[in-house]
Amino acid sequence: RAEDVDFLEDTEPVLALTVGDESRAYPVQVLIWHEIVNDTIDGIPVAVTYCPLCNSAIAFDRRLDDRVLDFGTSGLLFNSALVMYDRQTETLWSHFTGEAAIGHLTGEVLDVFPMSTVSWADWREANPDGLVLSRDTGHDRDYGSNPYPGYDDVESSPFLFDGEVDGRLAAKERILGIELDGEAAAVRLDSLQEDGVEELDLGSSELVAWVLGGTASALDAGSVSGGRDVGATGVFSRIVDGEELSFSVDGDGFVDEQTSSRWNVLGEATSGTLAGTRLEAVPHVDTFWFAWAAFRPDTTIVG
Predict the structure, then answer these.
(1) Alpha-carbon distance 21 to 30, whole Å?
(2) Of 54, 123, 199, 290, which one has the fewest beta carbons inside 10 Å?
(3) Dihedrals φ, ψ of 189, to 5°?
(4) Which uninterrupted H or E stretch holds 301?
């Protein structure tokens, strides 16, 4: 439980996943070594995946028709991104798209759960009774260290990426990737950090993307907790009970102009008229531009 965790620093990144009424945190210091966690949350089988080479974290539903799949790392890469396999059929799956690429289940696509990368302090405050993936994995790894120091350098090249980088942005620029209703958008993190909030319409949805400082980059320094501050992001529907809200940064959180309610980075109203309300989270991926553009070449750029 969160109260028993003593191995995480306040600014250290964790993957925050809520399924049903249950929220769990998966420290990047563990995922950076193992890349996949097969778990069950609120009775739903999920796979929590992280690819350090693309800096992408995505959660999948492990149910497919009448099967429940268990995933492992294949050791292969596609566009420098993790390739998973399921232990039931040994089909190969793209971590970035959730699509089966080679094997018995080719063409199948896994459903995605919204998941965000936030600081341990922010997640712990919002989920004091929540469960956290421990370091008791049965494996001997140097948890807490970053095996890819300096990989977050925007001037550096992607590892084993054979494709042609879309020249609209630098290969390693950080973006928020969103895909809805067949439309894809890449929100530039540098631009988002200037105002803290970006409102955008994608497909038929009215969305808000935001960023709040205080979360370290796992891929910068020699330790996961020692990286530069890149902030934590979220993407949500800005419609609540049929009303469109607009947001701005206010101190260590956000406030909506319509009700003056305060919201945390996880999209939960912590005070005001809407206290207790949770914005509808939209799946997004914090990643490097080269990876998003390789898998979503028709993306538009926001910012």
Answers:
(1) 24
(2) 199
(3) -65, -40
(4) strand 300-302
At which residue do the structure tokens 């992280």 appear?
50
> Kind and range of the H or E element at 202?
strand 197-202
Grouping H, G, I as helix, E, B as strand and the rest as coil, residue 299 is coil
How many helices (H) and strands (E) would you count in the chain?
Answer: 4, 27
Distance CA 137, CA 130 (A): 19
Q: What is the Cα–Cα distance from 150 to 165, expressed in whole angstroms?
A: 20
CB atoms under 10 Å from CB of 87, counted, come to 11
Characterize the bridge pairing of strands 115-119 and 243-244. unpaired
- What does DSSP say about strands 205-212 and 197-202: parallel, antiparallel, or unpaired? antiparallel
Both tokens of 217, joined, read: 């980059």
CA distance 77 to 82: 5
Question: Which helix (H) or strand (E) is 120 found in, with range?
Answer: helix 120-126
Asked if 13 and 215 count as a contact pair (C-beta separation under 8 A), the reply is yes
pTM: predicted TM-score of the whole model, two decimal places = 0.96
Residue 162: is its pLDDT beyond 90? Answer: no
Q: Distance (Å, rounded) from C-alpha 86 to C-alpha 72?
A: 6
C-alpha dihedral, 160 to 163 to 164 to 166, nearest 10°:
-90
Contact by Cβ (8 Å): 224, 29 = yes
- 179-214: pLDDT as tens digits: 998 999 999 999 999 999 999 999 889 999 999 999
In terms of phi and psi (left: phi > 0; alpha: psi -120 to 50; beta: otherwise), the region of 11 is alpha
